[in-house]
Structure prediction request, 202 residues.
Amino acid sequence: YPGQESELEIPDVYDQYRSAAEYLGRVPKNIRIIIAPGNHDAVRLAEPQPALPEKIRSMFSDDVIFTGNPALVEIRGVRILIYHGRSMDDLIATIPKMSYQRPELVMIEMLKRRHLAPMYGGRVSIAPENSDHFVIDRVPHILHCGHVHTIGIDHYKGVTVVNSGTWQSQTDFQKRMNLDPVPAHATIVDLATLGTKMVKFA
Prediction:
């Protein structure tokens, strides 16, 4: 975002990934980590996005799973559709009563349309591909996004919708955009019941 260089504690992008790998390396090994890229990662901005390049993946432990964006993963029989969520910018700007403070409602609109990025020509740059990677053809048990840095949890026709928050407090850019992030929270989903619980870290 404009002026971000002045707010970075670690200016070099590769050093940022090394630091992230160090922090994530402290997570107990019985917890699987899945990393999907977003619009601030070192991959192409156009979606769908490939997984992080090998140069970056090699910084992390071997048990970390890297996917593209979007990605459908399955854990213990539970289908989880992971999408960074950049299309929320377009949906919030277009659909009445949508807001950054209620991202779960925007995600439900994706489910209703069976498409993660149902608008073309807006903020989301969509790469020309032979197939549409944003169509929701297999209904997931969980839809997970995170782009807007706010928390949202809901259920829609059997799908648990989770927009995770962020670990970063409000930046000057977010203040100018009237975005109020919700940092240091994590959502836990019980894969047996799809029930959710919020854990606050700060």
